[in-house]
Amino acid sequence: MDANFKKIIPFTNPYRSHVIWNVIFNIFYALFSTLSFIALIPMMDVLFGTSEKINKKPVLESIFDIIKFSKEYLYYNITLLTEKNGPEFALLLVIAIVSITFLFKNLFNYLASNHLMHLKNGVLKDLRNSMYHKIINLPVSYYSEKRKGDIMARMLGDVNEVQNSFFSILELIVKEPMTIVFTLVGMIAISFKLTLFVFIFIPLSGLLISKIGKSLRSKSEKIQYENGYLISIVEESLSGLKVVKSYNAESNFKQKFNDSVTRVLKLSNSIGKKNNLATPLSEFLGIITICVLLWFGGKMVLVDTLPDGKALLDGAKFLAYMGLAYNILTPAKSISKASYSVKNGLAAAQRVFEVLEVKNEITDSENAIKKLTFEDSITIKNINFRYEDENVLKDFSLEVKKGQTVALVGQSGSGKSTIANLLTRFYDVNEGTIAIDGIDIKEMNLHSLRDLMGLVTQDSILFNDTIKANISLGKLDATDEEIVAALKIANAYEFVKDLPLGIHTNIGDSGNKLSGGQKQRLSIARAVLKNPPIMILDEATSALDTESEKFVQVALENMMQNRTSIVIAHRLSTIQKADLIVVMQKGKIVEQGKHEELIAMNGTYNKLVTMQSFES
After folding, report:
1. Domain ABC transporter spans what residues (predicted)?
2. With left for phi above 0 and alpha for psi between -120 and 50, is residue 479 left, alpha or beta?
3. Rounded to an integer, what distance in angstroms lies between the CA atom of residue 327 and that of residue 182?
């Protein structure tokens, strides 16, 4: 059994009753599918006047004689009706039996399909939930190497493919095989000799079809990866549309997209050719078998005779037999198509489980401590950290006392933003410890750790929703009054109150209806409303123009009052009033002290001040 198939099974457990009922109804469907053709025999016997005459009412002597009893009881009633009321009433009886068998066949098919629908849709919902929970829970580091478009393709396209293709397996192992089994039993009951040809046909057909489908799974995997790349191009094009247009790079992106679409086309055509071949091939092989059966069966009806002069095979039985033989073709075609679908589904399932099985390195430790308050200090002790091979931070130590504003400054690549990533546990240190009030943050409950912190980044990350929804992200039950108060502290209420719907105004995708300064002030308001004891400002004003910076700077100063703040600085204005300025170079502290003390040292900090450039 395929490993990915085994991994899907736990997702079907909540819907086990639907699986059981689907199997039961499929078995009944297969049974009545066969009976519907066998019921044609007495109908044709009545039409041709060849009905077996039984005048004595049969008695069921043993449960094992149920088939013989059923047949004799039917012909007894046909005989009775024919003698009393004429053959037309007997014909009505057998037509009613044929109608009822076809009714039950289709009823059970509907019920089986209904339960399969509940199973497929339920598993789709659970798979999507699992995928989304996983991609939300995975650490930030995971996405630094992955294409967002590929993750989206797995989340949407591949999960859908699992739903659409994978559950063909229930038909592959229950409905169609049971239809073939019951049909073969009926055929053997009519003529064992003729049925031998069918036994030769089925394995031959299966062998040919499996050879064609052998390379299908690898091509399905390739096309799913290519679809992920395609979505990535679209996502990147839309995210960076201004850059694409300003550099006249449209033709470059169009070419990349066109190349990817062409690869998808070639793979789709290759898979489609093999999929399309399955049905006509199995049907052609089936018709060959039907022709052989017509020849040999026809001879048995028209030429070959028994010692008493009767035909070797009754004409009505032969016609019903041919109906049964054709009845095998539909499930045989369905099995060949379903086997291809399952290959697509397994390839998609593999990509889904590649994400679901990624080990999350940043999780709560056993018996993690829930820390609800910040009392004394943040201690960073002898930490080393590397993204790949080379250390970004080397033997770095720092203590931040409660109520202090500590600024980290230095040139780009000195490791400033890495400190913010480590404090919030977006990444974990390789060596050394970071502790809050003496408790290692790795031993703290992750949710409670992040509850103690507010983060304002250089990029104002806002969502396509109202101002209220964006600001209340850290406090979902906040009242309108609390939101307005946070906006006032963030120096943002002045522009928000002038908007058409105030705090209920939708700000568009990524807040694009607002200016950079307005977006940043909303980010600050979000942090203010959360009201955490520790504030981390990661170059919060570096992307702003001078006028916007003044508004944001006032907002930051309002926010940092009575809080412990770690400011990753880009501009001098942000940090002059800091209690401690830490100057970093290549992952190490080279100077630290207050603004005036560092100027007096006439070292690295003084040089940065002179240049007036605190690069990110």
Report:
1. 378-611
2. beta
3. 11
Exposure pattern of 291-309 as b/e (b: 16+ CB <10 Å)?
A: ebbeebbeebbeeeeeeee
- Per the DSSP assignment, residues forming a β-bridge with 380 are 398, 434
Nearest to 536 by CA among 616, 417, 381, 371: 417
Q: What is the CATH code of the structural domain delimited by 3-356?
A: 1.20.1560.10
Q: Identify the CATH number of the domain defined by range 377-611.
A: 3.40.50.300
Distance CA(591)–CA(409), nearest Å, equals: 10
Domain ranges for the chain, please list them. Answer: 3-356, 377-611
| pLDDT tens digits along 131-177 | 888 888 888 888 777 777 788 888 888 888 888 777 777 777 788 88
Asked if the domains 3-356 and 377-611 are classified in one and the same CATH topology, the answer is: no
Residues in the chain: 616
Strand ranges of the sheet holding 431-436, from the earlier edge strand across to the other edge: 391-401, 377-386, 431-436, 439-440
Q: If you average pLDDT over residues 545-554, what whole number do you get?
A: 67
Burial (CB count within 10 angstroms: exposed 0-12, middle 13-18, buried 19+), residue 118: middle
Q: For the sheet with 580-585, list strands across it.
A: 453-456, 534-538, 564-568, 405-410, 580-585, 588-593
Instruction: Enumerate the β-bridge partners of residue 535.
Output: 454, 565
Confidence of residue 580 (pLDDT cuts 50, 70, 90): very high
In contact, 442 and 525? CB cutoff 8 Å: no
Return the biggest CA–CA distance within the chain. Answer: 127
Residues 6+ apart with CB under 8 A from 614: 409, 410, 542, 569, 570, 571, 572, 608
Residue 613: per-residue pLDDT: 47
Spatial distance between the Cα atoms of 135 and 437, rounded to a whole number of angstroms: 31
SS3 assignment, position 2:
coil
Q: What are phi and psi of 546, to 5 degrees?
A: -60, -40
